[in-house]
Write a structure and sequence with these properties.
The complex is a heterodimer of chains A (300) and B (439). Chain A is mainly alpha-helical and 300 residues long. Chain A has a single domain, classed as Orthogonal Bundle (MetI-like fold). Helices cover 76% and strands 0% of the residues of chain A. The longest helix of chain A has 36 residues. Chain B folds into two domains: 201 residues, Periplasmic binding protein-like II (D-Maltodextrin-Binding Protein, domain 2, 3-Layer(aba) Sandwich), CATH 3.40.190; 202 residues, D-Maltodextrin-Binding Protein, domain 2 (3-Layer(aba) Sandwich). The chains are: A mainly alpha (300), B alpha+beta (439).
Chain lengths: 300, 439
C-alpha cells in the first residue's frame, strides 16, 4: 500500500505539466519506479521467505510469524549435511555434473549444428530445420517417458548417462545457435579460411565458434539453468538416490510417505543452499547475457 | 472365502495373461545361481521407509555373499509407478521393492512380482496375522511378498485439552461427535479432527472399521463394493460433522495442519500405530501432551478397527537372484534381530506377531508418559477387519481425492454420499475398460 501512495502524487503532477516533459528529463517517474519496486518485491519475496524459513527449527516453522527469522540456520545445514552421511552434498555435486557437463556439451553440439544449418547448403536442410522448429514446440517433459523406454533397451537407465544424454540435444539451443551463426559469422571469412586450406572442423573450432561466443554463453546459461531445474527426467530415469540431482533429492525429503514426517527444515535449508550456485553463476555471466540479448536483437 | 480368493487370483492372472510364464522362468534360472554358496550376489532394494538402510547394514555384515543396496524412494506411489514403467520397458527394475498392501494386486496384474511360494519365504505364514497374510497371497497358493509392517488405527488426542474441557475419551462415534461439538464450542478455531480428502488410505481404514471391503472376487469376476452400507455410513457421518462445522475440512499433512497440531487447534488425530513418528516430527514441542486410545466404535460391544498404511517386501520378476532376495526378505521381516532393528530405526509397527511383542516393550519416546501405549495398539491390532484390494486401487483412490475434495469444500452431507457413488462408478468403469470381468 505504501508504494502506491507516491505513485498517485506523480499522476497528479504529470497531469499539470505538459506531456512528455516529465518522462524525458527531470526525476524518474514515481509510477514506473513504484511498479518496478512492486515487481522486484514480488520476485524477491519467495527468496526472503526461504531465507527466513530456513533459519527456523522444526517447532518454530509452523508456530512463529512467517517472515520472522530465527537462529537455527547453521543447525539446519549441519543436520542436512548429516542426513544419510552427507547425501545432500552428493546431490549438489551430481547437479553440478549434470548441469555443467550437460550444458557444455549441449552448447558445443548446438553451436556445431547451428553453424552447419546456417552456413552450409545440403539437400534436406530446410526439412531438418522444420523438424527442429517443431522440436522447439514439444516440451521436454513429454519426451521423458519415451526416452526412458529407449534408454531401458540400451540398459542405461539408473546411470549418469540416462540424465546426461537426453539433455545434450536441445532444439531450442540449435535454433538459437543457427541465428547467431547467421548473424555473427560472415561467409567471406569462411571462404577466406577455406582458400587458405583450413579444414572444416578447424574453421568451426578456431574461427566460427569464437565469433559466436556471446551467443554461446546465452545458450550455455539457458541449458545450465534448464538442467539445474529439471525434475521430470531424472525423476523418471533414476532409482538410486546416490545419482539424484538436488531437485529430485529434495522432493524425496518431502515425500516420506504418510507414516513419517516430512523433513521440512532440511528441505528449506537445502533449497536455500541450492540457489546459491545459480546466483553466483548469474552474477558472473550476467554481462555476457545482457550484451548478447542486445546484440541479437539488432543483428538478427 | 479362501477358495473364492484363489479363483479371483486366477481370474486376474488370466486377464493379465502373463504371470505363469514369467514366474516359472524366473525361479527356474535362479535355482542354479543361488545353489553356489561362494557366488557373490548383489541385490538392489527400492524402499522409502526412513533409515531402512541401517537395518540392511546388519544383514550385509552377516551375509557377505548376498549384498543388499537400498535405493531410497520418494514414497509408495512413485516407487510403484517407477517399477511398473521398468517392467514395461523390460529392464531397470530392482530385485526387491517395498510394496504397500493395496499395491500388490496392481503389481501382480502387471506381472511385476515374482512368486515366492517355492522359497523359504513361504514358511513364514505363522509369523503374521491371517488378514495380513491374505493380502500378500491374495488368498491363493502363490506368495507375492513378505509382510513388513501394518498400521492398525487408533485415536490420538490432547489429554491436557480434554482435561481442561472436562471431556472423557470418546468410545463410540456418537460420543466422538459430541466431543467434537464441545471442543469447537469452547474454541471456535479448534477442532477435534479433520476430514482429509487427500488421504484415501485413511478413509479406507475408517470404512474397513465399519465393515467395508471395497473389492471382492466372485467366481472369475471382480465385484466392487464401495457404494454399500458400511462406506455410506462412514461418509454420511463425516459429511454430517463437516456440514455442522464441528469438524475441520482441510487435508492432513499440510503446513497448515502441522501448525494446528503445534498450537493445539487440532485436538485429536485418527491415525495408525506409526503416528508417534509423525507427531514428534511435526509437533515436537507438544511431547507429553498426547495420549492414545482405541478408535471410537460403531458398536461398542463388537470392537473393530481399520488399517492405514503398512507395507511388505516383494521380489520383482526382473530379479536374477529371486532366491537370495527371498532369503533377505524373510530375514528382514521375521528375524528377531531384524524386527528389533526395524522398530528402532524406522519406527514401524512390525507385522511379525512375535517380533512385535518382544520389540515393542517400552512406549515410544513421544508417549513415554503413557507406559501402556503398545498395549492399546496391540489390542487394536487384534481387531483389524479383513479387506480385499482390487487391481485398480490407484483409480479408486484418485476418485476419492477428486470427489471428496469437492464434497469437503461444499460442506454438504449429501455431497459426501454422492462422492461415494461416483467412486463406485469410476472404479467399476475402469475395471471394465481394462478388460476385467465385473459382476
Amino acid at each position: 500500500m505504501t508504494t502506491l501512495a507516491p505513485s498517485r502524487t506523480s499522476n497528479t503532477k504529470s497531469a499539470r505539466t505538459p506531456k512528455g516533459a516529465v518522462s524525458a528529463h527531470d526525476k524518474p517517474s514515481y509510477l514506473s519506479t513504484g511498479i518496478l519496486i512492486l515487481g522486484a518485491l514480488y520476485c524477491l519475496f519467495p527468496v526472503i521467505w526461504v531465507v527466513a524459513a530456513a533459519s527456523k527449527d522444526g517447532n518454530e516453522l509452523f508456530s512463529t510469524f512467517t517472515l520472522a527469522p530465527s537462529t537455527h540456520l547453521w543447525d539446519n545445514i549441519v543436520a542436512l549435511t548429516e542426513y544419510r552421511d552427507g547425501l545432500f552434498w552428493r546431490w549438489m555435486a551430481n547437479t553440478a555434473l549434470y548441469a555443467g557437463v550437460g550444458a557444455i556439451v549441449s552448447t558445443w553440439v548446438s553451436a556445431l549444428s547451428g553453424y552447419v544449418l546456417a552456413k552450409f547448403d545440403f539437400p534436406g536442410k530446410s526439412g531438418i530445420f522444420k523438424v527442429l522448429l517443431m522440436g522447439v514446440l514439444v516440451p521436454g517433459v513429454i519426451l521423458a517417458i519415451p526416452q526412458y523406454l529407449m534408454l531401458a533397451q540400451a540398459g542405461l537407465t539408473n546411470t549418469y548417462w540416462s540424465v546426461l544424454l537426453p539433455q545434450i540435444i536441445s532444439p531450442y539451443g540449435i535454433y538459437l545457435a543457427r541465428i547467431y551463426a547467421a548473424a555473427s559469422v560472415p561467409g567471406d571469412v569462411i571462404e577466406a579460411a577455406r582458400t587458405e586450406g583450413a579444414k572444416e572442423m578447424y574453421i568451426f573450432n578456431r574461427i566460427a565458434a569464437p565469433m559466436m561466443l556471446p551467443g554461446l554463453v546465452t545458450i550455455f546459461l539457458f541449458q545450465f539453468v534448464a538442467i539445474w531445474n529439471n525434475f521430470m527426467l531424472p525423476y523418471i530415469m533414476l532409482g538410486d538416490d546416490h545419482l539424484f540431482p538436488i531437485t529430485v533429492g529434495l522432493n524425496g525429503l518431502l515425500n516420506q510417505g504418510a507414516s513419517a514426517p516430512a523433513l521440512y527444515t532440511l528441505v528449506l535449508a537445502g533449497a536455500l543452499l541450492s540457489i546459491i550456485p545459480l546466483v553466483i553463476m548469474f552474477l558472473l555471466l550476467q554481462r555476457y547475457w545482457r550484451v548478447d540479448l542486445a546484440a541479437g536483437a539488432v543483428k538478427a | 472365502m479362501r477358495k473364492s480368493f484363489r479363483a479371483g487370483a486366477v481370474a486376474m492372472l488370466a486377464a493379465a495373461a502373463m504371470l505363469t510364464a514369467g514366474c516359472s522362468g524366473t525361479s527356474g534360472t535362479d535355482a542354479g545361481s543361488a545353489n553356489d554358496p561362494n557366488q557373490k550376489v548383489e541385490l538392489t532394494y527400492w524402499a522409502w521407509a526412513p533409515n531402512l538402510d541401517k537395518v540392511v547394514e546388519v544383514w550385509n555384515e552377516k551375509n557377505p555373499n548376498i549384498h543388499v543396496t537400498v535405493n531410497k524412494q520418494d514414497g509408495g506411489d512413485p516407487a510403484v509407478t517407477k517399477l511398473l514403467t521398468a517392467v514395461k520397458a523390460g529392464s531397470g527394475a530392482p530385485d526387491l521393492i517395498q510394496a504397500e498392501y493395496q499395491k500388490i494386486p496392481t503389481l501382480v496384474a502387471a506381472d511385476a512380482l515374482a512368486d515366492l511360494s517355492g522359497t523359504e519365504a513361504n514358511e513364514t505364514k505363522s509369523h503374521f496375522p491371517e488378514g495380513v497374510w491374505d493380502s500378500v497371497t491374495l488368498g491363493g497358493d502363490a506368495l507375492y511378498a513378505v509382510p513388513q509392517d501394518t498400521g492398525p488405527m487408533v485415536f490420538y488426542y490432547r489429554a491436557d485439552i480434554f482435561e481442561k474441557l472436562g471431556l472423557s475419551v470418546p468410545t463410540t462415534w456418537d460420543e466422538y461427535a459430541q466431543a467434537a461439538k464441545a471442543v469447537h464450542a469452547a474454541d471456535p478455531e479448534a477442532y477435534l479432527g479433520t476430514f482429509s480428502s487427500n488421504d484415501a488410505g485413511w478413509f479406507t481404514g475408517m470404512a474397513q472399521q465399519a465393515g467395508a471391503s471395497w473389492w471382492g472376487v466372485d467366481g472369475d469376476a471382480w465385484s466392487v463394493n464401495i457404494d454399500e452400507d458400511p462406506t455410506n455410513k462412514v461418509a454420511e457421518y463425516w459429511g454430517g460433522l463437516v456440514e455442522e462445522g464441528t469438524i475441520d475440512n482441510k487435508p492432513m499433512y499440510t503446513p497448515e495442519w502441522n501448525t494446528a497440531l503445534n498450537t493445539g487447534k487440532q485436538v485429536g488425530w485418527l491415525s495408525a500405530a506409526w503416528g508417534p513418528g509423525v507427531l514428534s516430527g511435526n509437533a515436537g514441542a507438544t511431547a507429553g501432551l498426547w495420549k492414545v486410545a482405541p478408535m471410537p466404535q460403531w458398536d461398542a460391544s463388537k470392537p473393530s478397527t481399520g488399517n492405514w498404511g503398512g507395507s511388505s517386501t516383494a521380489v520383482t520378476t526382473q530379479s536374477k537372484n529371486a532366491e537370495a532376495a527371498a532369503k533377505f526378505a524373510t530375514w528382514l521381516n521375521t528375524d528377531p534381530e531384524a524386527v528389533q532393528a526395524l522398530v528402532k530405526e524406522t519406527g514401524v509397527y512390525p507385522a511379525d506377531n512375535a517380533g512385535a511383542k518382544s520389540a515393542l516393550t517400552a512406549a515410544p519416546e513421544f508417549f513415554s508418559h503413557q507406559p501402556d501405549f503398545y498395549e492399546v495398539v496391540a489390542d487394536a491390532a487384534q481387531n483389524v477387519g479383513s479387506f480385499t484390494y482390487g487391481p485398480n486401487v490407484n483409480v479408486a483412490f484418485n476418485a476419492y481425492n477428486d470427489q471428496f475434495a469437492k464434497a469437503a469444500q461444499a460442506k454438504q452431507k449429501s455431497a459426501f454420499s454422492d462422492a461415494v457413488k461416483s467412486m463406485q462408478q469410476v472404479t467399476v468403469e475402469d475395471l471394465k475398460q481394462t478388460g476385467f470381468t465385473v459382476k
